[in-house]
Amino acid sequence: MQRSMWPYLILFSGVLIASTASIMIRYAQAAGVPSLSIAAGRLVIASLILTPLVLARARPELQRLSRRDLLLALGSGTFLAGHFASWISSLAYTSVASSAALVATNPLWIALASFFFFRERLGWRTMVGIGLTLLGTIAISFSDSAESLQPNPMLGNLLALIGAATASGYLLIGRSLRRRLSILAYIYVVYSTAAVVLVVWVLLAGQPLFGFSPYAYLLILALALGPQLLGHTALNYALSTLSATFVAIALLGEPIGSAIFALVLFQEQFAPLQLLGFVLLLAGIVLALQAEQSKG
Known about the structure:
Number of strands: 0
Pfam families: EamA
Family: Belongs to the EamA transporter family.
Number of helices: 14
Shape: globular
Protein name: EamA domain-containing protein
Oligomer: single chain
Order of helices and strands: HHHHHHHHHHHHHH
Transmembrane segments: 40-58, 70-90, 96-117, 124-142, 154-173, 185-204, 216-239, 246-266, 272-291
Keywords: Membrane, Transmembrane, Transmembrane helix
């Protein structure tokens, strides 16, 4: 296997693992865990698991970290905290499909930020890919809202969009830092920062961190081990060699994976418009992949 294919395979694996997050979050919410507590618990556990590994392998690198890179990593972690707080909260108000699809609109925000702030030119295939993925997102959202039985789809969709915007900041900063920092040093600072921000947020909101059932804590542990440590770390690894725009577009495969898991576990059937949206998302990802490979 060619070495150049590894980042794509790792990215695909990360997206697949991340697709399970929506399902586990729904289970945790049903078990009585508030959304902010889920987000905080997920990042706290992930950071604690990483600590001994980082002390053994990345301590010198962290000690040499420049002030600029440290501030950037803290900013990335703050964006990540905002992403999880808003997106996980959205799942309490709207459907898994709409939440996952709308939070994946970050290619639009990243493309706009790259154009206006970094003067980055985007190829025509990337632009068409972004257009297709946005059309797919709109189709999925309309399909869900037409037959929605969720508590407050409008609020949930807005929170998901906020989650997309904050995830864009996280990915853009990560793209810069991952060129200079090892994956272990980077994710430790970012995940730990997000954990601290979320714990403070939970305390200020007056929500609990303890007193849940063992089943609920198992779900939070699974979120930390799977979607966070394996899924997000795979995405951050891919950022060292792939563009933030392409990684963001590949993440649009997450709502497809989430919907498939929902079909298997909850027997949720696909509506025709929803299925069309998934096809458009996949087409956009393929075009973006071709554009990324043509750079090499």
